[in-house]
Model the fold of this input.
Amino acid sequence: MHVDRTDAALLRALTRAPRASVLALAEELGLSRNTVAARLAGLESRGVLGSFERRIDPAALGYPLTAFVQVKVVQRMLAEVSAALQDVPEVVEVLGLSGDVDLLVQVVARDADDLYRIAGRLLAIDGVERTTTSLVMRRLVEHRLEPLLRALADG
Done:
């Protein structure tokens, strides 16, 4: 999944203008339309470009609280626990970890009581040994890849 300088420049342009057309990207980068189209297709096929799903603020859906739940799992039940987590609508993302805990689960909640209910639901999943919940107080740095892309594009 190597990204070269041209790919990085293309990805930076997409980061700045996610809705840009192939023609607009080609003009901005000084490349042919066919080159940009081929590069985009290659980035998609290699899994560099993921879903085109727009990020939606959970607060707009009535879920202003975000928390991270560290989950210790019975090792032989990791697949079952992961499948059960997919059935919890408030689970936004699940990451497998190395170290003392097995999973980091990002959840959203309506309020503290709702978070308590969700944490209890996670703890009740067969195969979950223990959980530790941390409430997000403030997002200090938004999800970003532009600095990495800039470094790649600039060489």
